[in-house]
# Entry
Amino acid sequence: MRIAMIGTGYVGLVSGTCFSDFGHKVICVDKDAAKIARLQAGEVPIFEPGLEALLAKNTASGRLTFTTDLAAAVDGADAVFIAVGTPTRRGDGHADLTYVMAAAAEIAQALTGYAVVVTKSTVPVGTNRAVANAIRAAAPKAEFDVASNPEFLREGAAIDDFMHPDRVVVGVESKKAKKVMAELYRPLSLREFPMVYTDLESAEMIKYAANAFLATKITFINEIAALCERVGADVKAVAKGVGMDGRIGDKFLHAGPGYGGSCFPKDTMALARIGQDHAAPMQIVETVIKVNDEVKRRMIDKILDLCGGSVRHKTIAILGVTFKPNTDDMRDAPSLTIVPALVGAGAKVRVTDPQGRHEGEALLPGVKWTESPYQAASGAHLVVMLTEWNEFRGLDLAKLARKMAEPQMADLRNVYDRDEVLEAGFTRYVGVGR
# Structure
């Protein structure tokens, strides 16, 4: 089939590349000519394990191409995916649909035959109908249907998630659109991955409800961690015992410095606003947002306590600044709250991250970037484990301690065992919920 993918951000680029690997002919579109030039040259603008090789394979086959010409991409397409950004709107917390509706307006002028216009961006309930109305108003004679096809890709594991999904959610209203969507995902259906067909509104809501629930699990265990610290329990043991219950599951029950990234912060905020607008307040979600902000501030207090109440003139080594491992994404990362607070309090902050420097240099002014944890820790008074990259899980702790002026560790991801750290020569160790 022929697919036009509007937007070459994280979702659009991964989805377009994976669809081309299914055997479809995919044209990815973006207004950023420089980005398109890089993609045409085989350069991937984001870090996602396996994406560069998969992109190279499918561009070489001719199934995957890139262009700035939306009209040419849409001409003759069976499906046109809208995969543009929906950031939090300034002032009110709603999802900003500017890019979605702009794409819809351009698609309306470019349609030359029947196509299914598929919204893959995360959008509030009612957006797909708004897209349909906008296209119909701009091109009354256009032949099209709309579909909602939310993505559930984890950064760092996106290709595997696309190729081996828990489920594929498709909101459609016509048999013709359902047939097109079924053909697009036929390789997954043949392998019996679940396909969930529903109405437009339910598909839109599924995405928000799923992300809000996962954010709630993270925030719940972080609150339990705070209580564990007061009563002498170990949150890792608690999470293990709770997670073994099949009704709950062990995923997203890892205490830490709070959730971040491109989805959970903006989607929980948007869902809260949707609830307010429809007189059905999302009180649990609103509390999750509030508590997650408090968790980040609590991590700052942990660091201050280890440094005797003040970090002024202290050198602090930060290991990891991306919101999670295996990505270069810095959006709403806990580091963006914690690191500036330390710099503002007078600390000399050294940072190391396998992929975070490209975005991090602009977002974290006043820090010194280093190439390794050992360089960051040299002469430091405290090392802070902030992102649990694999590179940081097997450190030579004795070597790290010897390099430090004052060997102390704030392990905000509970990567290490306290006794192991102290035996290696550290004088103090603080985890989360332990």
Observations:
- The first strand starts at residue 2 and ends at 6.
- The CA atoms of residues 14 and 51 lie 7 Å apart.
